[in-house]
Specification:
The chain is mostly beta strands. The protein has no helices and 11 strands. The strands form 2 sheets. Strands 2, 4, 5, 6, 9, 10 and 11 form a 7-stranded mixed sheet that branches.
């Protein structure tokens, strides 16, 4: 059983930075993927950034490229999302995710394990 626990959300102003952390507990099979999704108010969930553990390749949602950075510790027990130059449209519940044998990295159905989510609110 894999458990994912997010922390670090909050209320910030446009242009500010925020760092989300996900603590990962449990066993992940080979070819696992870790990442972050978000659900803006009244909208569907969308993939923000994911990393393929085997080789460290990273994917980003176009709208966050250059502003957000995903990283992980060597043991893959901590996953972080550094969010800079935040905009009001980044307001969402952010979820930590884990999956195996992912084929379409930014699609939510590829991921079996989800954290409870953490709220990020960016005021203008």
């Amino acid at each position: 059983q894999v458990q994912l626990v997010e922390s670090g959300g909050g209320l910030v102003q446009s242009g500010d930075s925020l760092r989300l952390t996900c603590t990962i507990n449990g066993f992940l099979r080979d070819d696992y993927w870790l990442g972050w999704f978000r659900q803006p108010p009244g909208k569907q969930r969308e993939g923000v950034s994911v990393v393929r553990a085997s080789d460290g390749k990273i994917w980003y949602l176009d709208s966050v490229k250059g502003r957000f950075t995903i990283s992980r510790d060597n043991a893959d027990t901590i996953l972080t999302l550094q969010m800079d130059s935040l905009k009001p449209e980044d307001t969402a519940v952010y979820y930590c995710v884990a999956g195996v044998s992912v084929h379409r990295p930014l699609l939510e159905y590829e991921y079996d394990h989800w954290g409870q989510g953490t709220q990020v609110t960016v005021s203008s």
